[in-house]
Design brief:
Blueprint (H helix, E strand, L loop, with lengths): L1 E2 L6 H6 L4 E5 L2 H12 L2 H15 L1 H4 E3 L2 E3 L11 H14 L5 H19 L6 H12 L28 H16 L2 E5 L2 H6 L7 E3 L17 H13 L4 E6 L3 H4 L5 E8 L11 E8 L1
Parallel strand pairs: 1-2, 2-5, 6-7
Antiparallel strand pairs: 3-4, 7-9, 8-9
């Protein structure tokens, strides 16, 4: 199997291939999967430390007055002062949210800052990257024009999120096992597809033609979709393509089996996504 738009790894979890060629253009995402596959010790330690702090936050932190009951788990202990500053800033900024939400928002601010500060070469950066993805609104990872991460904390309902079960379950066990036989590339989708063995099954879930495809300095444009269209028109193996909304019109002329399904996006940010949509499934 090959998946050149790896994203959240849904194809890997669903199809469970014995061998896989996986690709994505986001170097942070690729580094996360590579370090998960390889059981990088610094990455793993950071992942467990973040999960322990988040799931048992008030075992470590008192916010009336704001102080540490005990030192945060490693490796976050070395960031204790900066973390406390961010929690204090969040409480001072206030808002209509409950106090726990404000405290957890401050922790999220700290994780987000660390994800931006640490260089990609630092294995710990991938742990912070994953945590931010889990705790950001809708698990979205979007950047502004200057490359800064700009999605807020998920809010009160995310206060109940627990990270350790995710780490212990899918990430530490099942996820790592699924990645053992996978080659993971940081590459344009066409490069990944060109390296795919002839006749391999392709799963294709490219960014859709919405305002949300324009982010992080890597827009996925109509021309990119036309490149994928041309590849599929010549591909002689099995594949499954999933697109939605205006993107459907690009691929409808392909002479493969297809089905249109009505659906809804579960959420949107700043009206960028029409919640009502029509999905196109196209396969060979």
């Amino acid at each position: 199997m090959a998946d050149p738009f790896l994203g959240g790894g849904a194809s890997l979890a669903f199809f469970r291939p014995r061998r896989a060629l996986l690709g994505d253009v986001d170097p942070h995402l690729v580094a996360f999967y590579q370090r998960l596959r390889d059981a990088d010790p610094a990455f793993t330690e950071s992942l467990w430390g973040i999960g322990e702090l988040w799931d048992h936050l008030f075992r470590y932190l008192s916010h009336a007055p704001l102080r540490w009951h005990q030192s945060p788990p490693e490796p976050l202990a070395g960031e204790a002062e900066a973390l406390l500053d961010q929690v204090g800033a969040s409480l001072e900024a206030g808002g209509k949210a409950p106090q726990e939400t404000l405290v957890r928002r401050g922790v999220y601010w700290h994780l987000r800052r660390r994800a931006e500060e640490l260089p990609l070469q630092d294995p710990r950066s991938s742990a912070y990257f994953w945590a931010v993805r889990e705790l950001a609104f809708g698990s979205m990872y979007r950047q502004n024009r200057t490359g800064g991460f700009n999605v807020p904390y998920g809010g009160t309902s995310y206060d109940r999120k627990r990270l350790l079960p995710l780490i212990e379950g899918f990430l530490a066990k099942e996820g790592r096992a699924l990645l053992q036989a996978a080659e993971i590339l940081c590459a344009d989708f066409e490069e990944t597809l060109r390296r795919t063995p002839p006749g391999a099954f392709l799963f294709l879930d490219p960014p859709y033609l919405t305002r949300f495809s324009q982010y992080g300095g890597r827009p996925f444009t109509l021309e990119d979709h036309l490149r994928l269209y041309r590849f599929l028109s010549e591909y002689d193996g099995p594949f499954l393509l999933v697109v939605a909304g205006p993107t459907n019109e690009v691929y409808l002329p392909l002479p493969h089996q297809k089905r249109l399904l009505r659906g809804r996006f579960g959420f949107g940010i700043k009206g960028r996504i029409d919640p009502r949509t029509e999905y196109l499934l196209l396969w060979a």
